[in-house]
Specification:
- By secondary structure, the protein is α/β, with parallel strands linked by helices.
- The chain contains 11 helices and 8 strands.
- The chain has an 8-stranded mixed β-sheet, sandwiched between helices.
- Helix 4 links the parallel strand 5 and strand 6.
- The longest helix is centred in the first third of the chain and has 24 residues.
Length: about 300
Amino acid sequence: MTTTLIITTIIIIALLALSIGAGQYAFSITPKESTLNPSKLELDFEDIYFQNDNGEVLHAWWLRNLNNPQDTPSPTLVMLHGWNRNCQRMLPYLEHLHQLPLNILIIEGRGHGENSKNSFISQVGFGQDISAALNWLVLQPEVNVQRIGVLGHSIGAAATINASYNDPRISAFIADSSYAHPKEIINRMLKHLHIPFFPMGWLMQQYIQIRLGTTFDKVAPENVIAKMNKPGLLIHGDRDQVVPVNDLRRIQNNAGRNVESWIAEGYHHSNTTEHPEFPEILRNFIQRTLLNSSETQFDHLIHEEVSAS
């Protein structure tokens, strides 16, 4: 082996090691437990725990439907937060939904909240955690297994789209502030960390895809949604600086007619729930898809946004 070949091999191994280290760093966080819970809204809840496909025990809040006089199984909504968040992040959604005749399960994805630290967190893993939550959910006697919806924010929204495609138990989905393609999010992260795309960023992306066991293209929400035939609602703030609102339009352009869009004008990545029209947009979609209620007076708001997109 020549000296040049030896040096080249050492450089390649060093770059690969640095890329893997950067990937581990970028996709690992320190879990933070919630400091607020549904009691803030004067709601009863239960801490429950379930196991995901990796054998990790995950934490969730379980809120039974207390407005069911017949004591029959109720529709259920599963909610999942975004990156570096926890159950507490979903309290604004819960505030808008708790009066509906629903069970609500708010889960914490792997490596987040009360869960153990995880050195590799991804959209794919979050989607698997949703399905693991459903494994627990369908065993509960108060759950109508024919009417289960999912709602996610940010990476949780992207995971919600993936889970809705992969898991036939999901009847409808709501994706708030989802990105269109994970590669673009990773590229933004590389830029933020001042990591050059080539060769380190490129090597890191290859490593991540090997760990995922699939390609970014196959799990990209804009590609996955093209293969789905379930009712969905896409939400996005038009001033989102984390994920551009054009990502919603790209996802919508590939979606079927039963996927609707609504843009919160003047709002950002993490405050769409504060838009005055948000509660009715959200509740009306759930009423039509999970509760089988008729179309309401606010549906025109959604249809107008779809046309504008």
